[in-house]
Amino acid sequence: MAAADLNTVRATIEGRLATELAESPAIPVVFHNMAFNPPNNGTWVQCLTSFGGNDYLSQGGTSDSFNRIVGIVVFNIFSAKGVGPGANYVVGKRIRDLYNRVNVSGVFFDAPTGPEALASPVPEGYFQTQVRVTFESIEEL
Amino acid sequence: MAVIRGEQGSVQFDAAGSTNATVVGTRSWSLTTTKETLDVSAHGDTFRSFVGSMISGSGTVELVYDPDATGQAGFIEDVLTTADGADASFELFTTGSSTGSDSVSFDGIITDMEITSTVGEIVIVTCSFITSGTITGNLE
User: Fold this and answer.
1) What is the domain range of residue A92?
2) Antiparallel, parallel or unpaired: β A113-117 and B10-14
3) What are φ and ψ of residue B80, in 5° steps?
4) Domain range B6-138, CATH architecture
5) How far is A54 from chain B (nearest CA, A)?
6) Is residue A81 part of a domain?
7) Which residue of A has its CA nearest to B123?
């Protein structure tokens, strides 16, 4: 039992996506705080992992106790503009299937939300959808 | 003055009543202690009088279910003990886990165990108990 390493949780989440999107057809992916040049008129994914409010799960002070750590992963999926949503949603399904109700290394992923089409893509020049997955990890002290 | 928050508490238990050990993963506990009263009003009295009589207790312990957590299996399965001789010992702590400090201790019987599994939520176990014999308070 030890305090949770949030960087390990982040790496678990991001590593799962990086492995999936490295497979054919490979899709560029960018995470928080990384330099990145989006492909012109191509498909790419932005993955943003954030931790939220945590709470007590059990009694016991700083040892023999559990905490709940929650967070959200936001996947922004960008694809070519003006050619319909199909290609984008194919990527959305790959991502959704990757996390849907999965328990990986003690990280419980909930049922995903999306892909939702966004009216104002950021950056502009793409068709953008968003998949969001909340997750929960139990810290055992 | 120092108020205490629930997460500071803990529960210790031993089914055999010898050496208590912490049950890891308890989420809450409660204990209700009741003293029966005897009516000692005399003929001619205009106000009732009582004296305290038998004392007993009952309560619950709620756990975040973890089959690997120390002490949980022994605690939640004690309800299956047949011909239970009320030899299990409990110590409920408001804070810390130092025997005889900030706690209530007693022997008792686990009379009820309910395990609840709900979609999207953590599995919770709730055990009810009654005390048997002396209840020792160290809450001062």
Assistant:
1) 6-140
2) unpaired
3) -85, -5
4) Roll (2.30)
5) 14
6) yes
7) A57
